[in-house]
Specification:
16 helices; NADP binding; HDH_cat; Dihydrodipicolinate Reductase, domain 2; globular; alpha/beta; 3 domains; Alpha-Beta Plaits; six-stranded mixed sheet; 38% helix; Rossmann fold; 16 strands; 23% strand; amino-acid biosynthesis
Length: 408
């Protein structure tokens, strides 16, 4: 039996899915495509609707939501699930904010919700976590989950560009939006980590509870220091479970050459999953682009037509409710343009002046860093995690080699 498919949105991801379906199985093309902007130039060979009820009130079997507005996306997905439909979404912000409610709607009305494209574009990490770790216990998940910020960091290290130059290049190459804020401040990654945390650990940690520091304050002197240590800086999302609970954090992090994340460059994403039975597994793939993300949407569509739904085994049958993450202790390098900017974060810690910046190394909890986020942003502090790649003493030694003033 042929499924009737409705598609909301026909941007980069929607076009990628459409192209794949057209070439592979035309019967999986949408009957109806609803878009919002009547003035946008579009393919004249296709017919578009501007009325959401053409899908919501129609006898469609599968609804695909691929729009950017999380509020509107929620309305569409909510309505489709209440109609018992099979639903596919790629809207990470909407999903991270509403997963508990959407899962209850799925159960109550007999629909299904798949969202592989929401977490790592072309990497099937959600399906893998859902299917491949039955009877296993995941202790750690780490990843590079934003292609834009990874591309920017690659340009800083490989081309010696400034952050502003790298952002501009990312925009020119289609790897960053006209407003790149959500990519460079880490917000995009926090949505993805909320989603992955549910599948890996059975814990729903709202993204607002996750320590999130982006790449917006990484500077050339940070890059010089990392290179002198034989390391790179990557924006790393970490979820780690121990006897005390589950900690989650996202921040620029030093990565060594023996870590597979070291070689992940440009728009690529990657994830490392460490579990009791399987040890460490590593996944890498394109984290941005029309076809990579569209491929995950298309894969969800083929799964939906076969009746596949996420098992959420790690929930152990429990209802999804918001939880607080466990605070974790991090060793971090803190740097700024002035001594005054550093002072709120460095009480009693030596400050060093080198390479036109002021530096300190501190051990601080993720809970304290969350409290200090307004100061970090206002004072434009660069915060980089050591990540057990190098000792505090070696970092200080490198800073002191270039040091002009030691300020206590």
């Amino acid at each position: 039996m042929t499924n009737r498919i409705g598609l909301f949105g026909f941007g980069v991801v929607g076009q990628g899915y459409y192209e794949i379906a057209k070439n592979d199985r035309p019967e999986l093309l949408p009957e109806t495509i609803v878009v919002q902007n009547k003035n946008k130039e579009r393919d004249h060979s296709l017919q578009f609707s501007f009325d959401p009820t053409d899908i919501l009130d129609a006898p469609c079997d599968i609804g695909i939501e691929l729009i950017s507005d999380p509020v509107q996306a929620y309305d569409y997905v909510n309505s489709l699930l209440k109609s018992g439909k099979k639903v596919i979404s790629a809207n990470k912000k909407m999903l991270a904010a509403h997963l508990p409610e959407l899962l209850e709607l799925e159960k109550a009305y007999g629909g299904s919700l798949l969202y592989e494209a929401s977490a790592a574009a072309g990497i099937p990490i959600i399906t893998c976590l859902d299917c491949h770790f039955a009877g296993d216990h995941i202790s750690k998940l780490q990843g590079i989950l934003n292609g834009s910020s990874n591309y920017i960091l690659s340009r800083l290290f490989q081309d010696d560009l400034s952050l502003q130059e790298a952002v501009k290049l990312a925009q020119e190459n289609g790897f960053a939006e006209a407003d790149p804020t959500l990519d460079i401040n880490g917000s995009d990654v926090s949505s993805k980590l909320t989603i992955l945390g549910l599948h890996a650990f059975g814990k729903y940690i709202p993204e607002g509870e996750i320590l999130t520091i982006g790449v917006q304050h990484v500077h050339a002197a940070d890059v010089t220091l990392a290179k002198s240590l034989g390391l790179k800086i990557k924006l790393i999302a970490t979820a780690q479970k121990d006897k005390d609970g589950l900690s989650l954090h996202i921040l620029p992090t030093l990565v060594s050459a023996n870590d597979p994340l070291f070689l992940v460059e440009n728009e690529y994403n990657a994830a490392k999953v460490t579990s009791q039975n399987l040890g460490e597994q590593f996944f890498q793939g394109k984290g941005a682009g029309s076809l990579p993300t569209g491929a995950s949407v298309y894969a969800d569509l083929t799964k939906a037509e076969k009746g596949y739904g996420y098992s959420y085994d790690k929930l152990n049958g429990k209802k999804v409710t918001p939880e607080q993450p466990q605070s974790a202790s991090l060793e971090v390098i803190i740097s700024a343009d002035s001594q005054e900017a550093l002072k709120p974060m460095t009480d009693g810690i030596s400050i060093h002046q080198a390479n036109g910046k002021y530096w300190a190394i501190s051990t601080v909890s993720t809970a304290e860093l969350i409290k200090q986020l307004p100061v970090i942003e206002t004072n434009k502090l660069s915060i980089i995690a050591l990540n057990n790649t190098v000792s505090k003493e070696n970092v200080l030694a490198q800073i002191q080699q270039q040091e002009t003033v030691n300020i206590n």
